[in-house]
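>> received
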Amino acid sequence: MNDGTCSDVADATECDAFGGSYQGDGTSCATTTCPVAIPPGHDCWFASTCAEGISSAAFGGAGAYPPIPADFFGPGSDPYVGTVLLGQGFTDTVMFRFDTMTLDPCATAEFEMIQLSMEGCAPISVTYNGGQDPEQWDVAGLSVRVASLGTITACKTHANGGRFDSELLLDARWEFAPRGGGESRIWLPPPIQLVATNGPFCHGPSCTDLPFCNPYYRPGYAVALDGTPCCEAVCYQAPANPADSICLRPVADGPCMQCPLAGGAVPTVSHWGLIAMALLVLDAATIAFQRPRVA
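>> returned
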């Protein structure tokens, strides 16, 4: 079943009536590991907070973004080079997966980030004419300019879920506002590549439904085999510089303790990729950007 459960039925017709995936005559739940189909839908997140201090963006230097150009903040303003700490904005973060993920045990799907809201945790100092006249500007908003496309490869490693790797091409819109009041500035830099690795997900009846979000599937949220839930931040980072990091937390329907660090007993997605290589043809490193946007 799509909720991760298995039922013994008489034939394919009865299985179809339950909305399941028939595994063949003579099979039973006791002897068969059923592939799990997660339908397309919305994956919901919260952005990390300023207090956590785990999301940031670097401009210039080794950062994924170039320096904010000269004259951007006003005539004579110097290029801005520095790192900005980011925290949660006014709305949640939402991704939409286009494809069904049939976990057997792994699957790859395309998605787009359709909503992101973050803001700076402290003002930046902008100078003019070669380091003179410093001026305080707030990072008033980081959002997506257009839907940002990516891929996710998820592997089910136990009855209640598993781990995933993901890539995202973030096409961002930055808004800066002068602290003393005045006209805001909008910066639209080139898109940057971000990668997340070994994030947890919960799948099955243990994952309670949330309004608007995909039922029975919650990335960043995990449920141990004994039924204990926990939450884990998943950070999308620039491969060359971890200072460029958009960290997200799962939407939980109550207090959610931090997941313990993964030990050697839980295979990572990379390990499962080796195990499944002979059975699956997956290419998580390639993002198809021709997918139409969701209205």
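>> Confidence is low (pLDDT under 50) at residues 262-295.
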